[in-house]
Design brief:
Protein name: D-alanyl-D-alanine carboxypeptidase/D-alanyl-D-alanine-endopeptidase
Largest sheet: 6 strands, mixed
Keywords: Carboxypeptidase, Hydrolase, Protease
Strand content: 5-15%
Region (Disordered): 119-147
Enzyme class: hydrolase
GO molecular function: serine-type D-Ala-D-Ala carboxypeptidase activity
Number of strands: 11
Shape: elongated
Radius of gyration: 26 Å
Length: 553
Amino acid sequence: MVVPELRPWRAAKPHVARAANAVRPRLARAAGTVRPHLERAANAVRPGLERAADATKPQLARVRSVRLTRPKPVGTWQYTAGAATAGLALAVAVATAAGPWDSTGQRTAEADRAVALERTGGADHGRNSGTSGSSDAAAGAPRPAPSAASVLVGLGRSGSTVKSAPAGPALADVLGPLLKDPALGARHTGAVVDIATGKRLYGTGTGVPLTPASTTKIATAVAALSAMGADHRLTTRTALEPGTEEVVLVGGGDPTLTSRKSAGGWASLEDLADRTAKALKKRGLHEVTLSYDTTLYTGPLLHPIGVNGNLAPVSPLMADEGRTNDSTSGPVRRVTDPAADAARQFRTYLARHGIRTTAPGPSKATGRADALAAVSSPPLSALVERMLTNSDNDIAEALARQTAVATQRSASFDGGAAAIAAQLKKLQLPLKGAQFHDGSGLDRDDRLTAGLLTALLAKAGDPARPELRPVLTGLPVAGFTGTLTTRYADGAAGVVRAKTGTLTGVNTLAGTVVDQDGRLLAFAFLASDTTDPQAAQSALDRTATALAACGCR
């Protein structure tokens, strides 16, 4: 029987042939480019994965007896490690070849394709013109980057084919012995939750409040995003007082404002000076009085820990987090008065643009002042991601105060802490035993439970709460980004995403992991009274690695 060629195909055939011929050489070149990267990546990660397989084999062996009946395994643990090696190597090589990457962490090719498809969302997380208080709603603002796919579906699966979650008793057999490691001290708690359902799969001391250290930032992020929205921006502006020729630099609480020549997508103090100078010249002004306004925040500037390289005095006006070197994260000596320092730099920039000023001093902009110029931060989603990835204490304390401002509370340490708790209560999260004293987790009197931390992560994955998704996307990736860059070399690199927490005698870890069956799980492990921070850190990493390696039926 002869099947006639369909008319639509007959018409399209020449076009398809031309497209195939055009693409074929590019695919050949891409294959040649990827092959060396894949071979090198496979050789690099193979030893680590083999060691991870050996480390978790005893725990997994104990739960084989309770697993549901499955088809006979094709090979051995070595076969599994080899397959994982090839898979991870392929992911690394393809990611390298598929670049370049833009400043938001998205491949430019993906961004171009999404723009061609006219999709919205992504980096600005579905912003719209009805968002109150956001300067990006103005006409001519840039379009948002494209949205990523749902984080709730395992790779290669549709939403209707995800396997069932691990069984509680099997998880307990795997995680229980690991959490009893002496390196984790006398007090330790843990919880594991299936993000897709919110069901708790494992728990030990889930309601016991312990010092959370920097995992507090997860709570701060959820509170800020729920109060202000993912597309909210923080604005630094200048105003001209009528009849006085006084220019006031008004701090809007943007902790990412930078005075560096290359702003990298963050709001630029030099750009603000340029715009302000142009506005003054249009008014015929070339010499003014310069003041700065920090009245947005109240209360003490210094955190209860005092002067510390981990955090600048908390001010609504600062440039580069008051750092005294070119760093963008980590502890470093800070200036003693970030607002005055930023105002002095602003004066220098004005002078370069032909505007002479007095030495700057503190003041307050009145309601009668004329607007001159303004610069705004990237969306709140980007600030949250930077805070979580780098464990940025300055951003954390700023977001706590911004949450207080958004909810009509005092923008102070106490007001920010109260605002965080109030927002989490609105979200009906389990707050029993929780205590907030700051937004960063530097205060040793903070208390959170493993149950609350996993509930926060599950809430961030709720499809009904897309504004909270940056809490998940901002978590450091094991072995690749942020505070996990140098960890998991022998474990679940690229699979675990987690916020770390470290104070003297305290080690915590909370985040997400995709298990062997493709389920996205949230976990939280907290340990107090630890004596060896490196040993405790390694014990937590082994526990998260075992969770990633577990099917646990």
